[in-house]
Amino acid sequence: MNTCDKTRQEVLEALREAADDDAARDSGGGVHTTHLADVLGRDKSTIQAHMAELNDAGEVERVTGIGDTGRPRVSYLPAEDDADDADEKRRII
């Protein structure tokens, strides 16, 4: 596994953990790249690049939620096989 693949896997694992933590998620959405960058100690643009790759691969899905400022923003959730579970993760918190 090369460094890029290893980092992408770390990002995906951090997303999965954060998706289960209501405090880490946008209201009605997923986890923003800023949160993942803080958790992993990496630059936000690095996380965004990996999220784009993971989205293209079908490993994550882009969702829109309300961020800290009260404005809509794109965030991410792990891709789910079970539609009911995905709907539950999108609930407004």
What does it look like?
There is one protein chain. A hairpin with a 5-residue loop joins β1 and β2. By secondary structure, the chain is an alpha+beta fold. It has one domain: Winged helix-like DNA-binding domain superfamily/Winged helix DNA-binding domain (Arc Repressor Mutant, subunit A), CATH 1.10.10.10.
Essential attributes:
93 residues; alpha+beta; Arc Repressor Mutant, subunit A; two-stranded antiparallel sheet; 4 helices; 2 strands; 48% helix; 15% strand; globular
- CATH class value: Mainly Alpha
SSE succession: HHHEEH
Q: Report strand order across the widest sheet.
A: 1-2
CATH-defined fold name: Arc Repressor Mutant, subunit A
Indicate how many domains the architecture comprises.
1
Q: Radius of gyration, Cα only, in angstroms?
A: 12 Å
Strand content: 15-25%
Overall CATH architecture: Orthogonal Bundle
Low-pLDDT stretches are none
**Main beta sheet:** 2 strands, antiparallel
- C-alpha geometry: globular
Distance between the termini: 37 Å
Write the CATH homologous superfamily.
Winged helix-like DNA-binding domain superfamily/Winged helix DNA-binding domain
| Count of DSSP H/I helices | 4
Protein structure class: alpha+beta
Helicity, as a percent range: 40-55%
Residue-averaged pLDDT, rounded?
86
Give me the count of strands.
Answer: 2
Short précis:
By secondary structure, this protein is of the alpha+beta class. The protein has helices at 3-19, 33-40, 44-56, 83-89, and strands at 60-66, 72-78.
